[in-house]
């Protein structure tokens, strides 16, 4: 097993360390990551713990917002021997009041295309689902058809429209489900084999360890139909918004899905993914690194062994006012998916297309770009994109010595300030924009204040 860290901190790029377990001392507590080590002020120069945690020299605490910050890229976890055979994100399933209208919103604003549907006309008596696709990104919207559907009624009353399931493509659905349940996952639906003239798809569902949200395992072997057996294909060219709408953005894949949990629950949630699904810790930042004048948070990212599925888990830390995570938890009625990040290969044009379609993005102050230009010059980093285009589209940039990422965040997509989308482009950079967090969170807090929730 290897441990990684990109040590970047205020005042200078520290460099990349790749440590092997054979040559590094053991950390006392396997579960403690670099953030915890830093919190305790015990990080040493170039010291990597054998548990996979890595500490870089920190003669003084990082000064958030004053420059570049330490982040930790980790590969560690207790689930080394467990491989559920996850191949990547399959789709994200929303539960909403009106699946037809929600789907149309995503077609109009985000350029998705109608892909498949099921409902009364296809023999589905309880749930209507419409599935949208844009390149390799699949999202679905489901609504209950019966007046007294307890599951939907409770979900929508508590959380409003939002994500119910983050689905993973798997090699073997039965293996993934059985292995997860054996390790303590709460089963929601055992393996179901769905068949029609186009082939077979197997699905099974478990509940995420933090509760409420589901993970659906989807096994598709040689299925030639649209989405799943029982779904009717939709012709995107019959959709007027596709025919006559503005040019759509080009998406690649779902990059990551972020979950907010209650303060104090983040480590337990991460451990659940490691223990139950064989995930690994991948990245983390702590509340010394992510704080504004009013709030602070911690984040840890877990990933499957192939690193196709990345799930950041966020929790609040003590702050002067209500954090955006607390606001989310209040309005969602508990933990759940806060944002879905969609990766594109051309973010400048993708965001320009989305803006033409009326997508409402968080606004970034001009001072951010003055600071960005100075930092890029300071570290000798050049971007392939034009900085004026980046500023015009309101993109945030984060970088280290290996590469950079460009990202932007929408405002919430429903009346409750819960789910939003991120659009991002990676250029040899595997982080999540830690050096933009302060700018981003201050922008969100300005919106929170306007909502009366700060
Ligand atoms: Fe994100």
Automatic annotation (TrEMBL):
Binds 1 Fe cation per subunit. The keyword Metal-binding applies. InterPro entries: 4OHPhenylPyrv_dOase, 4OHPhenylPyrv_dOase_C, 4OHPhenylPyrv_dOase_N, Glyas_Bleomycin-R_OHBP_Dase, Glyas_Fos-R_dOase_dom, VOC_core. Pathway: Amino-acid degradation; L-phenylalanine degradation; acetoacetate and fumarate from L-phenylalanine: step 3/6. The keyword Nucleus does not apply. GO terms for biological process: L-phenylalanine catabolic process; L-tyrosine catabolic process. Its cofactor is Fe cation. Gene3D superfamilies: 2,3-Dihydroxybiphenyl 1,2-Dioxygenase, domain 1 (3.10.180.10). Fe cation binds at residues 256, 339, 422. PANTHER family: 4-HYDROXYPHENYLPYRUVATE DIOXYGENASE. This is 4-hydroxyphenylpyruvate dioxygenase.
């Amino acid at each position: 097993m290897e441990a990684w860290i990109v040590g970047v901190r205020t005042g200078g790029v520290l460099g990349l360390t790749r440590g092997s377990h054979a040559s590094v001392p053991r950390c006392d507590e396997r579960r403690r990551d670099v953030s915890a080590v830093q919190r305790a002020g015990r990080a040493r120069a170039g010291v990597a713990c054998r548990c996979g945690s890595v500490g870089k020299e920190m003669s003084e605490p990082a000064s958030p917002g004053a420059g570049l910050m330490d982040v930790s890229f980790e590969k560690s976890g207790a689930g080394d021997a467990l491989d559920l055979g996850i191949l990547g994100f399959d789709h994200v399933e929303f539960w909403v009041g009106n699946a037809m209208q929600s789907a149309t919103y995503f077609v109009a604003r985000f350029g998705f295309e109608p892909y498949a549907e099921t409902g009364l006309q296809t023999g589905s008596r309880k749930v209507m689902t419409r599935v949208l696709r844009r390149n390799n990104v699949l999202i679905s919207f489901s609504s209950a058809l019966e007046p007294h559907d307890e599951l939907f009624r409770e979900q929508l009353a508590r959380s409003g429209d939002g994500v119910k399931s983050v689905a993973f493509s798997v090699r073997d659905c039965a293996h993934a489900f059985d292995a997860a349940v054996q390790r303590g996952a709460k089963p929601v639906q055992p393996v179901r084999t769905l068949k029609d003239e186009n082939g077979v798809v197997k699905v099974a569902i478990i509940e995420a360890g933090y509760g409420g949200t589901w993970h659906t395992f989807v096994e598709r072997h040689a299925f030639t139909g649209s989405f799943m057996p029982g779904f009717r294909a939709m012709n995107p060219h019959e959709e007027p918004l596709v025919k006559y709408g503005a040019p759509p953005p080009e998406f690649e894949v779902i990059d990551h899905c972020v979950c907010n949990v209650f303060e104090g629950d983040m480590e337990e949630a991460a451990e659940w993914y490691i223990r139950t699904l064989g995930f690994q810790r991948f990245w983390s930042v702590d509340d010394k690194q992510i704080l504004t004048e009013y709030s602070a948070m911690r984040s840890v990212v877990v990933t499957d062994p192939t690193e196709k599925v990345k799930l950041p888990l966020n929790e609040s830390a003590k702050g002067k006012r209500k954090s955006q995570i607390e606001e989310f938890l209040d309005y969602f009625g508990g933990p759940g998916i806060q944002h879905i990040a969609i990766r594109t290969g051309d973010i400048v044009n993708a965001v320009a297309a989305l803006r033409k379609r009326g997508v409402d993005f968080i606004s970034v102050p001009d001072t951010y770009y003055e600071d960005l230009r100075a930092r890029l010059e300071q570290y000798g980093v050049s971007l392939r994109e034009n900085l004026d285009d980046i500023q015009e589209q309101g993109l945030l940039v984060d970088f280290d010595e290996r590469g950079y990422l460009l990202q932007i965040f929408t405002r919430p997509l429903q009346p409750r300030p819960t789910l939003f989308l991120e659009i991002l482009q990676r250029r040899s950079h595997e982080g999540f924009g830690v050096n933009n967090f302060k700018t981003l969170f201050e922008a969100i807090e300005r919106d929170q204040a306007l909502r009366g929730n700060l």
